[in-house]
Design a protein that fits this description.
The chain is mainly alpha-helical and 170 residues long. It contains 4 helices and no strands.
């Protein structure tokens, strides 16, 4: 028989999961707002401080909460009646969680670092640079997409749509 959480352990794991999701959503929203704020910077120092804030948020409110969300989500799926592949909403959440984490690792992290480098090299003039503008648009668009994914995952957690995965009969 598979391991199942008792109610107290499940409640603790759900609380950790919810706190990690809240941190991840808050970090994603903060990164998006700071990225938008970059365009209204008044001088090079302000741009550098904004980028420094984005790096702190990325390190502390995105990476670790995202990984904790993934880990606790898998644990809750496997150790409760929901299962990891029994319901479509669980599969969708798993895929979107992994997708948003990979987007953060392979794209947003690199783009944000690139913006920081441009600001360090060029100062306030970076705002006029075509590469800066293109990268900035990528950061804002992708951060918005990630935030929408997180919001969608929150809704389907409570609505539990799409039903069960049908078993294939041989």
């Amino acid at each position: 028989m598979a391991y199942r959480l008792n109610q107290k352990k499940k409640s603790i794991l759900v609380a950790v999961h919810v706190l990690s999701v809240a941190s991840w959503v808050g970090g994603t929203l903060a990164m998006l707002l700071l990225a938008i704020y970059l365009q209204s910077g008044a001088n090079g120092e302000q741009l550098l401080y904004t980028m420094a804030s984005m790096e702190v948020i990325d390190e502390n409110l995105l990476k670790y909460p995202a990984l904790l969300t993934l880990t606790t989500g898998i644990m809750l799926s496997v150790w409760t009646q929901w299962g990891l592949v029994k319901h479509y909403w669980v599969i969708i959440k798993l895929v979107l969680t992994i997708l948003t984490i990979l987007i953060g690792i392979f794209f947003l992290n690199r783009w944000t670092a690139g913006l920081g480098t441009l600001i360090e090299d060029m100062g306030f003039v970076a705002l006029q640079n075509e590469q800066f503008r293109t990268t900035w648009i990528s950061v804002v668009t992708t951060s918005s997409f990630n935030l929408l994914c997180l919001a969608f995952m929150t809704f389907i957690t409570y609505l539990k749509p799409f039903g069960k995965v049908k078993k294939i009969r041989k």
